[in-house]
């Protein structure tokens, strides 16, 4: 009851702030606020296509149809996913509008994400406003949820170079949420702090604590990217990762290789990226996976292979994954089918095969309605819409009508 009351009061306050500060300029929504010097700063949604706009709105509408009782956890998690994609697409105002409709602690998590977005996109006058809202919600939150909120808050202060403020939100080093903080420290590390960062991460690699090992190794990938142009440091970091990962599961090693390959591509090093992709492929081929998880790993790897210049093999692998899904469909639990297909559609879109991507999305949406309960149907439909919005796929009139039809039919039993 206390949490709900506080959330209500925070919602009222944030709504009043918006009402006071709303303005519109040439059709673009802006939140306008003056600082002490009188300078105007605006929180602006970047231009997106009309279909992306509609996909985001209907995704949130679908998520919000999930009943608060007894499904508030699923509802809020699905709503949060829409906020995250909105921020990825440069839509902070839209995100803020959605955030105010989330009914549990995830509202605070989203405020923290919005604060970090502001910190990384130059809206320095807005950061404290959203951090304060996240901090207030964190005070009424317990356990890992509280740790997640505090880690996100500390992450933003760390990014801004304010370690004293970040330290006020310390969480246990054994917490899985530590990854948020160590990752940012690695991202912003400079050449003078490199050795210190490496040493701190070495101390976090404690056998038996998977979360901390994974967080530390993930941070190494950020350092790998940060110091990519320094071949000596980059090679040392790669070696450190590969000599420290023996106690973590194979899937985590593959994810690390995928991160390293993505960094190589970010630095236009296709040769190194392909080398890392092939290493990951060996690990995938040498283990047993559930069909849906194999598709997830292979879809990610196939996109990287394509970007690394191994185009023919990438396309062949992707076509094979489609066939693999069809042959394994009955071995995949229905709540996982839409996600697997969306990952394949995203890969086709990356390769410029938009027509095929759209066909796979249509298939994903139909697989998402197989479950007799509306809650998983809503989650799958919202996620599919988000995938199309993020990866810039126009659903077209017919598929959009089908999305509306499914949305309209959502109801008991949930």
Task: Please explain how this structure is put together.
The radius of gyration is 22 Å and the shape is globular. Mean pLDDT is 88; it is low at 12-40. 71% of the residues lie in helices and 4% in strands. The chain has a domain at 185-248. It contains 20 helices and three strands. 42% of the residues are buried.
Strand content range: under 5%
**Overall geometric form:** globular
Strand order of the largest sheet: 1-2-3
Encode the helix/strand succession as letters.
Answer: HEEEHHHHHHHHHHHHHHHHHHH
Structural class: mainly alpha
* Mean pLDDT, all residues: 88
Helix coverage percent: over 70%
How many beta-strand elements?
3
**Major sheet attributes:** 3 strands, antiparallel
Unreliably modeled segments: 12-40
* Terminal residue distance: 24 Å
Q: How many DSSP helices?
A: 20
Q: Specify Rg, calculated over alpha carbons.
A: 22 Å
């Amino acid at each position: 009851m206390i949490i709900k009351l506080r959330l209500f009061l925070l919602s009222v306050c944030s709504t009043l702030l918006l009402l006071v500060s709303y303005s519109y300029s040439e059709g673009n929504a802006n939140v306008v606020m003056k600082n002490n010097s009188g300078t105007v700063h605006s929180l602006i949604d970047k231009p997106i296509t009309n279909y992306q706009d509609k996909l985001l709105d209907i995704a949130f509408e679908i998520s919000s149809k999930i009943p608060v009782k007894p499904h508030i956890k699923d509802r809020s998690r699905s709503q949060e996913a829409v906020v995250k994609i909105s921020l990825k697409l440069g839509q902070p105002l839209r995100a803020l509008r959605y955030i105010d409709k989330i009914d549990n602690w995830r509202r605070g998590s989203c405020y923290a994400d919005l604060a970090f977005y502001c910190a990384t996109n130059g809206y320095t006058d807005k950061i404290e406003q959203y951090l304060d809202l996240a901090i207030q919600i964190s005070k009424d939150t317990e356990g890992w949820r509280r740790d997640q909120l505090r880690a996100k808050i500390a992450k933003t202060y760390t990014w801004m170079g304010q370690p004293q403020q970040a330290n006020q939100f310390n969480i246990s080093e054994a917490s899985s949420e530590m990854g948020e903080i160590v990752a940012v420290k690695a991202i912003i590390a400079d050449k003078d702090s490199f050795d210190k960062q490496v040493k701190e991460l070495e101390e976090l690699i404690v056998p038996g604590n998977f979360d901390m090992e994974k967080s530390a190794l993930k941070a190494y990938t950020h350092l790998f990217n940060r110091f990519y142009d320094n071949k000596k440091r980059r090679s040392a970091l790669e070696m450190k990762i590969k000599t420290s990962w023996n106690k973590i599961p194979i899937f985590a090693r593959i994810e690390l290789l995928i991160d390293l390959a993505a960094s190589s591509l970010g630095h236009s090093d296709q040769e190194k990226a392909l080398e890392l992709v092939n290493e990951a492929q060996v690990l995938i081929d040498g283990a047993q996976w559930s069909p849906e998880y194999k598709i997830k790993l292979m879809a990610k790897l196939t996109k990287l292979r394509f970007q690394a210049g191994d185009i023919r093999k990438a396309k062949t692998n992707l076509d094979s994954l489609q066939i693999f899904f069809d042959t394994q469909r009955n071995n995949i639990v229905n709540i996982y089918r839409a996600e697997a297909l969306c990952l394949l559609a995203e890969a086709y879109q990356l390769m410029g095969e938009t027509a095929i991507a759209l066909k796979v999305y249509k298939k994903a949406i139909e697989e998402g309605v197989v479950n007799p309960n509306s809650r998983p149907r809503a989650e799958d439909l919202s996620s599919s819409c988000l995938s199309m919005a993020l990866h810039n796929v126009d659903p077209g009139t017919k598929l959009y009508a089908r999305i509306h039809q499914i949305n309209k039919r959502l109801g008991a039993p949930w």
